[in-house]
Design goal:
Length: about 250
Amino acid sequence: MRGYCAGMTCAVISGLRGGDATSRDAEGGVFASVILDWGHPSVEQFYADITHEAMSEPEFLVAAHRVIQQRIRAVYALDDTQPVSVTLGRGRGSCSQRLAVLEALARRHGIATRVTGLILRGEFWYPRFRRLHAFIPEYVLLAWPEFLIDGNWCDVSEVLVEPTETTSFEPFANAGAETLFDALSRAPIRWTEASSCDCLDFSEFVDEELGTFDSRDALFAEFGQTMSAPIRAVIDPVFRNWSASG
């Protein structure tokens, strides 16, 4: 992995660090982790409110995503390693934190998950923070979930989008009420270049693909977080209460 920071300013702002950015094919799993703490009573209760015996695995994931949208308010929190139980307790979370909730619920349901690590250019978020471009990191680390369905690893948007004859989609503005987490259920999302794509194509914002990891814990342990710990300590208490609904 190339160095993403140079100079004192970047060292203070960015928490990203070099790691082994080789092609890898992680096995994933259903085990609980520090982030995906699905054995916590609050996660167990959330799970119990969603599941019933007749659900297929894709149906469960669609239902879980919908309930997360309804119950977990979208905010601009910065801590990607926050345990799912904390997110549920607060009733609010960033896209990354809400995706972690979906992963934890999937694992509790017996669906193996893993994540793809993506380094995105910060301008992906420029439309959402129109007056704060100077404060957006140049690079952002994203943990993008995959789920093992019928023996095949499926991208999160492949699982959540219902089949349709529509071959074109409204663009994702990354502004206003619709967050990336919300957009998952209305259109397939592609982070890699393709000759044709009936999807929301974000490949132009991907600076580097880091391969797949057994858990988001493993990804962030190896590469760090987008924001350094000192910066998160100062501004996360504000951002985690700042609604992303526009």
